[in-house]
Amino acid sequence: MSKGLETKENILKSALELTSKFGLESLSIGGLAKSVGMSKSGLFSHFKSKEALQVKVMDYAAFKFTSKVIKPAIKEERGIPRLEKMMELWIEWSENYMAGGCPFVSSFVEYDDRPGVVRDHIMHLQKTMIGSFERAIQIAIDEKQLKTSESVQYLAYKVYSNMLGYHIYSHLLSKEQARKNFTKQFREIIQT
Amino acid sequence: MSKGLETKENILKSALELTSKFGLESLSIGGLAKSVGMSKSGLFSHFKSKEALQVKVMDYAAFKFTSKVIKPAIKEERGIPRLEKMMELWIEWSENYMAGGCPFVSSFVEYDDRPGVVRDHIMHLQKTMIGSFERAIQIAIDEKQLKTSESVQYLAYKVYSNMLGYHIYSHLLSKEQARKNFTKQFREIIQT
Q1: Residue A4 burial (10 A CB sphere; 0-12, 13-18, 19+)
Q2: For chain A, what is the radius of gyration of the CA atoms?
Q3: pTM for the complete prediction?
Q4: Interface of B with A (CB under 8 A)
Q5: What would the pLDDT profile of B156-186 be if each residue is shown by its tens digit?
Q6: B159 to chain A, minimum CA–CA distance in Å?
Q7: Domains of chain A and CATH, by start
Q8: What is the ipTM of this complex?
Protein backbone atom coordinates (compact mmCIF):
# COMPACT_ATOMS: atom_id res chain seq x y z
CA MET A 1 0.00 0.00 0.00
CA SER A 2 1.38 3.44 -0.90
CA LYS A 3 1.91 5.98 1.88
CA GLY A 4 -0.99 8.07 0.55
CA LEU A 5 -3.39 5.14 0.70
CA GLU A 6 -2.12 4.04 4.10
CA THR A 7 -2.67 7.52 5.50
CA LYS A 8 -6.19 7.66 4.09
CA GLU A 9 -7.00 4.23 5.56
CA ASN A 10 -5.73 5.36 8.97
CA ILE A 11 -7.76 8.54 8.80
CA LEU A 12 -10.91 6.63 7.86
CA LYS A 13 -10.27 4.13 10.65
CA SER A 14 -10.13 6.95 13.21
CA ALA A 15 -13.15 8.60 11.62
CA LEU A 16 -15.13 5.35 11.88
CA GLU A 17 -14.16 4.94 15.54
CA LEU A 18 -15.35 8.49 16.25
CA THR A 19 -18.57 7.84 14.31
CA SER A 20 -19.26 4.63 16.16
CA LYS A 21 -18.78 6.36 19.51
CA PHE A 22 -20.28 9.79 18.95
CA GLY A 23 -22.44 9.51 15.84
CA LEU A 24 -22.01 10.58 12.25
CA GLU A 25 -23.35 14.09 12.76
CA SER A 26 -20.70 14.84 15.40
CA LEU A 27 -17.96 13.94 12.94
CA SER A 28 -16.18 17.08 11.75
CA ILE A 29 -13.02 17.70 9.75
CA GLY A 30 -11.72 19.81 12.66
CA GLY A 31 -12.41 17.14 15.29
CA LEU A 32 -10.98 14.40 13.13
CA ALA A 33 -7.84 16.47 12.43
CA LYS A 34 -7.28 16.73 16.19
CA SER A 35 -7.83 13.00 16.66
CA VAL A 36 -5.36 11.91 13.95
CA GLY A 37 -2.85 14.70 14.63
CA MET A 38 -3.10 16.35 11.23
CA SER A 39 -3.83 19.90 10.18
CA LYS A 40 -7.38 20.81 9.15
CA SER A 41 -6.10 21.91 5.74
CA GLY A 42 -4.29 18.58 5.35
CA LEU A 43 -7.55 16.75 5.93
CA PHE A 44 -9.41 19.06 3.56
CA SER A 45 -7.11 17.85 0.81
CA HIS A 46 -8.48 14.31 1.41
CA PHE A 47 -12.14 15.22 1.95
CA LYS A 48 -13.53 18.36 0.42
CA SER A 49 -16.48 18.75 2.79
CA LYS A 50 -18.08 17.31 5.92
CA GLU A 51 -20.64 15.52 3.75
CA ALA A 52 -17.94 13.97 1.58
CA LEU A 53 -16.17 12.80 4.75
CA GLN A 54 -19.40 11.29 6.11
CA VAL A 55 -20.06 9.43 2.86
CA LYS A 56 -16.47 8.13 2.77
CA VAL A 57 -16.66 6.96 6.39
CA MET A 58 -19.84 5.01 5.70
CA ASP A 59 -18.20 3.49 2.61
CA TYR A 60 -15.28 2.49 4.80
CA ALA A 61 -17.70 0.95 7.32
CA ALA A 62 -19.30 -1.00 4.45
CA PHE A 63 -15.86 -2.15 3.31
CA LYS A 64 -15.02 -3.37 6.83
CA PHE A 65 -18.45 -5.00 7.19
CA THR A 66 -17.91 -6.84 3.92
CA SER A 67 -14.46 -8.04 4.96
CA LYS A 68 -15.45 -8.96 8.56
CA VAL A 69 -18.95 -10.39 7.99
CA ILE A 70 -19.96 -11.04 4.40
CA LYS A 71 -16.73 -12.41 2.87
CA PRO A 72 -15.88 -14.91 5.65
CA ALA A 73 -19.54 -16.04 5.69
CA ILE A 74 -19.48 -16.71 1.95
CA LYS A 75 -16.73 -19.26 2.59
CA GLU A 76 -19.30 -21.33 4.51
CA GLU A 77 -21.50 -23.87 2.80
CA ARG A 78 -24.36 -22.31 0.78
CA GLY A 79 -27.69 -21.73 2.48
CA ILE A 80 -28.41 -21.98 6.21
CA PRO A 81 -24.77 -22.46 7.35
CA ARG A 82 -23.84 -19.28 5.47
CA LEU A 83 -26.74 -17.34 6.96
CA GLU A 84 -25.87 -18.63 10.45
CA LYS A 85 -22.28 -17.50 9.98
CA MET A 86 -23.46 -14.04 8.89
CA MET A 87 -25.46 -13.70 12.12
CA GLU A 88 -22.56 -14.89 14.27
CA LEU A 89 -20.08 -12.54 12.58
CA TRP A 90 -22.52 -9.62 12.68
CA ILE A 91 -22.79 -9.97 16.45
CA GLU A 92 -19.04 -10.09 16.71
CA TRP A 93 -18.69 -7.05 14.43
CA SER A 94 -21.28 -5.08 16.32
CA GLU A 95 -19.91 -5.95 19.77
CA ASN A 96 -16.21 -6.44 19.51
CA TYR A 97 -15.02 -4.69 16.43
CA MET A 98 -17.13 -1.54 16.74
CA ALA A 99 -16.64 0.01 20.17
CA GLY A 100 -19.86 1.99 19.94
CA GLY A 101 -22.10 -0.64 18.30
CA CYS A 102 -23.01 -1.16 14.66
CA PRO A 103 -22.39 2.11 12.78
CA PHE A 104 -25.11 1.29 10.23
CA VAL A 105 -27.85 1.10 12.83
CA SER A 106 -26.63 4.27 14.59
CA SER A 107 -26.20 6.35 11.45
CA PHE A 108 -29.50 5.15 10.04
CA VAL A 109 -31.46 6.21 13.11
CA GLU A 110 -29.51 9.49 13.15
CA TYR A 111 -30.15 10.36 9.49
CA ASP A 112 -33.49 8.72 8.65
CA ASP A 113 -35.23 12.09 8.88
CA ARG A 114 -32.57 14.35 7.35
CA PRO A 115 -32.93 14.41 3.57
CA GLY A 116 -29.70 14.77 1.60
CA VAL A 117 -26.69 13.00 0.16
CA VAL A 118 -25.64 11.40 3.46
CA ARG A 119 -29.06 9.92 4.15
CA ASP A 120 -29.40 8.63 0.59
CA HIS A 121 -26.03 6.93 0.90
CA ILE A 122 -26.88 5.33 4.26
CA MET A 123 -30.18 4.04 2.80
CA HIS A 124 -28.29 2.60 -0.17
CA LEU A 125 -25.82 0.79 2.13
CA GLN A 126 -28.66 -0.60 4.29
CA LYS A 127 -30.40 -1.94 1.21
CA THR A 128 -27.15 -3.56 0.09
CA MET A 129 -26.74 -5.22 3.50
CA ILE A 130 -30.33 -6.47 3.52
CA GLY A 131 -29.72 -7.67 -0.05
CA SER A 132 -26.92 -9.91 1.27
CA PHE A 133 -29.34 -11.50 3.74
CA GLU A 134 -31.95 -11.91 1.02
CA ARG A 135 -29.47 -13.67 -1.26
CA ALA A 136 -28.38 -16.04 1.52
CA ILE A 137 -32.05 -16.83 2.25
CA GLN A 138 -32.83 -17.34 -1.45
CA ILE A 139 -29.92 -19.80 -1.71
CA ALA A 140 -31.19 -21.71 1.34
CA ILE A 141 -34.58 -22.02 -0.41
CA ASP A 142 -32.97 -23.04 -3.72
CA GLU A 143 -30.88 -25.65 -1.89
CA LYS A 144 -34.09 -26.97 -0.28
CA GLN A 145 -32.68 -26.33 3.20
CA LEU A 146 -35.52 -23.92 3.90
CA LYS A 147 -39.11 -24.80 3.00
CA THR A 148 -41.33 -21.76 3.15
CA SER A 149 -44.38 -20.14 1.61
CA GLU A 150 -43.07 -16.72 2.67
CA SER A 151 -41.33 -14.23 0.39
CA VAL A 152 -37.57 -13.78 0.69
CA GLN A 153 -38.19 -10.09 1.36
CA TYR A 154 -40.37 -10.93 4.40
CA LEU A 155 -37.93 -13.50 5.78
CA ALA A 156 -35.09 -10.96 5.50
CA TYR A 157 -37.28 -8.44 7.35
CA LYS A 158 -37.68 -10.97 10.17
CA VAL A 159 -33.97 -11.72 10.25
CA TYR A 160 -33.12 -8.03 10.38
CA SER A 161 -35.77 -7.23 13.02
CA ASN A 162 -34.22 -9.90 15.18
CA MET A 163 -30.78 -8.31 14.76
CA LEU A 164 -32.19 -4.94 15.78
CA GLY A 165 -33.87 -6.51 18.78
CA TYR A 166 -30.56 -8.00 19.83
CA HIS A 167 -28.86 -4.63 19.36
CA ILE A 168 -31.17 -3.04 21.93
CA TYR A 169 -31.54 -5.98 24.33
CA SER A 170 -27.79 -6.61 24.57
CA HIS A 171 -27.60 -3.25 26.35
CA LEU A 172 -30.72 -3.73 28.46
CA LEU A 173 -30.27 -7.30 29.65
CA SER A 174 -27.20 -9.42 30.01
CA LYS A 175 -25.52 -10.23 26.69
CA GLU A 176 -26.21 -13.92 27.38
CA GLN A 177 -29.97 -13.39 27.72
CA ALA A 178 -30.05 -11.17 24.63
CA ARG A 179 -28.12 -13.84 22.73
CA LYS A 180 -30.57 -16.54 23.87
CA ASN A 181 -33.51 -14.50 22.57
CA PHE A 182 -31.67 -13.78 19.33
CA THR A 183 -30.75 -17.40 18.65
CA LYS A 184 -34.21 -18.69 19.54
CA GLN A 185 -35.96 -16.29 17.18
CA PHE A 186 -33.43 -16.89 14.41
CA ARG A 187 -34.04 -20.65 14.68
CA GLU A 188 -37.79 -20.05 14.44
CA ILE A 189 -37.36 -17.93 11.31
CA ILE A 190 -35.21 -20.50 9.53
CA GLN A 191 -37.23 -23.38 11.05
CA THR A 192 -34.31 -25.40 12.38
CA MET B 1 -52.03 25.27 34.42
CA SER B 2 -49.98 28.08 36.01
CA LYS B 3 -47.87 30.27 33.72
CA GLY B 4 -44.69 28.72 35.10
CA LEU B 5 -45.85 25.20 34.30
CA GLU B 6 -47.15 26.23 30.91
CA THR B 7 -43.81 27.78 29.99
CA LYS B 8 -41.94 24.68 31.11
CA GLU B 9 -44.26 22.42 29.08
CA ASN B 10 -43.71 24.60 25.98
CA ILE B 11 -39.95 24.54 26.47
CA LEU B 12 -39.96 20.75 26.83
CA LYS B 13 -42.17 20.41 23.76
CA SER B 14 -39.66 22.38 21.69
CA ALA B 15 -36.78 20.46 23.24
CA LEU B 16 -38.42 17.15 22.33
CA GLU B 17 -38.98 18.31 18.74
CA LEU B 18 -35.30 19.26 18.49
CA THR B 19 -34.29 15.92 20.05
CA SER B 20 -36.47 13.95 17.68
CA LYS B 21 -34.99 15.76 14.67
CA PHE B 22 -31.34 16.20 15.61
CA GLY B 23 -30.67 13.76 18.45
CA LEU B 24 -30.31 14.13 22.19
CA GLU B 25 -26.61 14.93 22.12
CA SER B 26 -27.16 17.96 19.85
CA LEU B 27 -29.60 19.40 22.38
CA SER B 28 -28.01 22.35 24.18
CA ILE B 29 -29.36 25.02 26.50
CA GLY B 30 -28.02 27.66 24.06
CA GLY B 31 -29.67 26.08 21.00
CA LEU B 32 -32.93 25.53 22.84
CA ALA B 33 -32.93 29.14 24.12
CA LYS B 34 -32.70 30.34 20.50
CA SER B 35 -35.49 28.00 19.41
CA VAL B 36 -37.95 29.09 22.12
CA GLY B 37 -36.90 32.77 22.08
CA MET B 38 -35.68 32.87 25.68
CA SER B 39 -32.39 33.95 27.18
CA LYS B 40 -29.83 31.29 28.04
CA SER B 41 -29.88 32.42 31.68
CA GLY B 42 -33.68 32.14 31.68
CA LEU B 43 -33.42 28.53 30.56
CA PHE B 44 -30.69 27.82 33.11
CA SER B 45 -33.19 28.71 35.83
CA HIS B 46 -35.37 25.79 34.59
CA PHE B 47 -32.59 23.27 33.87
CA LYS B 48 -29.34 23.51 35.73
CA SER B 49 -27.22 21.60 33.22
CA LYS B 50 -27.30 19.98 29.78
CA GLU B 51 -27.63 16.56 31.42
CA ALA B 52 -30.56 17.71 33.55
CA LEU B 53 -32.22 19.06 30.40
CA GLN B 54 -31.64 15.76 28.55
CA VAL B 55 -33.15 13.75 31.42
CA LYS B 56 -36.17 16.08 31.62
CA VAL B 57 -36.73 15.86 27.85
CA MET B 58 -36.72 12.07 27.98
CA ASP B 59 -39.15 12.18 30.91
CA TYR B 60 -41.36 14.46 28.85
CA ALA B 61 -41.14 12.00 25.93
CA ALA B 62 -42.17 9.22 28.32
CA PHE B 63 -45.07 11.33 29.57
CA LYS B 64 -46.25 11.94 25.97
CA PHE B 65 -45.74 8.25 25.10
CA THR B 66 -47.87 7.25 28.07
CA SER B 67 -50.64 9.68 27.15
CA LYS B 68 -50.57 8.93 23.39
CA VAL B 69 -49.94 5.17 23.43
CA ILE B 70 -50.27 3.41 26.78
CA LYS B 71 -53.28 5.18 28.35
CA PRO B 72 -55.59 5.03 25.31
CA ALA B 73 -54.58 1.37 24.77
CA ILE B 74 -55.49 0.50 28.35
CA LYS B 75 -59.07 1.58 27.57
CA GLU B 76 -59.26 -1.36 25.14
CA GLU B 77 -60.39 -4.82 26.23
CA ARG B 78 -57.72 -6.71 28.21
CA GLY B 79 -55.30 -8.95 26.34
CA ILE B 80 -54.81 -9.10 22.56
CA PRO B 81 -57.04 -6.11 21.67
CA ARG B 82 -55.05 -3.98 24.10
CA LEU B 83 -51.72 -5.17 22.68
CA GLU B 84 -52.96 -4.54 19.14
CA LYS B 85 -53.98 -1.04 20.09
CA MET B 86 -50.55 -0.40 21.59
CA MET B 87 -48.91 -1.39 18.30
CA GLU B 88 -51.26 0.76 16.25
CA LEU B 89 -50.76 3.79 18.48
CA TRP B 90 -47.00 3.28 18.64
CA ILE B 91 -46.82 3.45 14.83
CA GLU B 92 -48.92 6.59 14.89
CA TRP B 93 -46.75 8.11 17.63
CA SER B 94 -43.54 7.24 15.85
CA GLU B 95 -44.70 8.50 12.44
CA ASN B 96 -47.13 11.31 12.92
CA TYR B 97 -46.56 12.74 16.34
CA MET B 98 -42.76 12.66 16.35
CA ALA B 99 -41.41 14.37 13.22
CA GLY B 100 -38.04 12.65 13.49
CA GLY B 101 -39.19 9.16 14.53
CA CYS B 102 -39.47 7.57 17.95
CA PRO B 103 -37.20 9.49 20.35
CA PHE B 104 -36.65 6.40 22.52
CA VAL B 105 -35.12 4.39 19.69
CA SER B 106 -32.97 7.33 18.54
CA SER B 107 -31.71 8.30 21.96
CA PHE B 108 -31.07 4.68 22.91
CA VAL B 109 -28.86 4.07 19.89
CA GLU B 110 -27.15 7.41 20.52
CA TYR B 111 -26.39 6.76 24.19
CA ASP B 112 -26.05 2.98 24.49
CA ASP B 113 -22.26 3.30 24.65
CA ARG B 114 -21.92 6.48 26.72
CA PRO B 115 -22.02 5.63 30.42
CA GLY B 116 -23.60 8.22 32.69
CA VAL B 117 -26.82 9.62 34.09
CA VAL B 118 -28.44 10.18 30.68
CA ARG B 119 -27.81 6.64 29.48
CA ASP B 120 -29.01 5.14 32.75
CA HIS B 121 -32.21 7.13 32.47
CA ILE B 122 -32.80 6.10 28.85
CA MET B 123 -32.27 2.43 29.81
CA HIS B 124 -34.73 2.82 32.67
CA LEU B 125 -37.38 4.30 30.34
CA GLN B 126 -36.84 1.53 27.76
CA LYS B 127 -37.30 -1.12 30.44
CA THR B 128 -40.50 0.60 31.56
CA MET B 129 -41.82 0.61 27.98
CA ILE B 130 -40.95 -3.05 27.46
CA GLY B 131 -42.59 -3.73 30.84
CA SER B 132 -45.86 -2.33 29.44
CA PHE B 133 -45.70 -4.81 26.55
CA GLU B 134 -44.87 -7.65 28.94
CA ARG B 135 -47.88 -6.83 31.11
CA ALA B 136 -50.23 -6.71 28.11
CA ILE B 137 -48.85 -10.10 26.94
CA GLN B 138 -49.20 -11.60 30.44
CA ILE B 139 -52.83 -10.46 30.57
CA ALA B 140 -53.49 -12.05 27.15
CA ILE B 141 -52.09 -15.32 28.54
CA ASP B 142 -54.11 -15.02 31.78
CA GLU B 143 -57.27 -14.34 29.76
CA LYS B 144 -56.51 -17.47 27.70
CA GLN B 145 -56.42 -15.43 24.47
CA LEU B 146 -52.82 -16.45 23.92
CA LYS B 147 -51.69 -20.06 24.37
CA THR B 148 -47.94 -20.32 24.51
CA SER B 149 -45.08 -22.27 26.00
CA GLU B 150 -42.82 -19.23 25.61
CA SER B 151 -41.86 -16.83 28.38
CA VAL B 152 -43.46 -13.40 28.48
CA GLN B 153 -39.98 -11.90 28.35
CA TYR B 154 -39.24 -13.69 25.05
CA LEU B 155 -42.59 -12.75 23.49
CA ALA B 156 -42.00 -9.09 24.40
CA TYR B 157 -38.55 -9.33 22.79
CA LYS B 158 -40.21 -10.53 19.59
CA VAL B 159 -42.84 -7.80 19.72
CA TYR B 160 -40.17 -5.15 20.24
CA SER B 161 -37.85 -6.55 17.53
CA ASN B 162 -40.75 -6.29 15.11
CA MET B 163 -41.29 -2.64 16.09
CA LEU B 164 -37.61 -1.92 15.49
CA GLY B 165 -37.76 -3.67 12.13
CA TYR B 166 -40.70 -1.50 11.16
CA HIS B 167 -38.83 1.59 12.30
CA ILE B 168 -36.02 0.89 9.81
CA TYR B 169 -38.09 -0.57 6.96
CA SER B 170 -40.61 2.29 6.94
CA HIS B 171 -37.73 4.48 5.75
CA LEU B 172 -36.28 1.94 3.33
CA LEU B 173 -39.43 0.63 1.64
CA SER B 174 -42.84 2.18 1.22
CA LYS B 175 -44.68 2.64 4.51
CA GLU B 176 -47.37 0.25 3.19
CA GLN B 177 -44.87 -2.57 2.60
CA ALA B 178 -43.24 -1.96 5.98
CA ARG B 179 -46.66 -2.03 7.60
CA LYS B 180 -47.53 -5.32 5.85
CA ASN B 181 -44.36 -6.93 7.21
CA PHE B 182 -45.01 -5.52 10.65
CA THR B 183 -48.61 -6.73 10.84
CA LYS B 184 -47.76 -10.17 9.46
CA GLN B 185 -44.99 -10.75 12.00
CA PHE B 186 -47.09 -9.38 14.87
CA ARG B 187 -49.92 -11.80 13.96
CA GLU B 188 -47.41 -14.68 13.97
CA ILE B 189 -46.15 -13.71 17.40
CA ILE B 190 -49.60 -13.51 18.95
CA GLN B 191 -50.80 -16.46 16.82
CA THR B 192 -53.96 -14.85 15.47
Answers
A1: exposed
A2: 18
A3: 0.91
A4: 20-23, 25-26, 99-101, 105-106, 108-110, 112-114, 123, 126-127, 130, 153-154, 157-158, 160-162, 164-169, 171-172, 181, 184-185
A5: 999 999 999 998 999 888 889 999 999 999 9
A6: 9
A7: 50-190 (1.10.357.10)
A8: 0.90
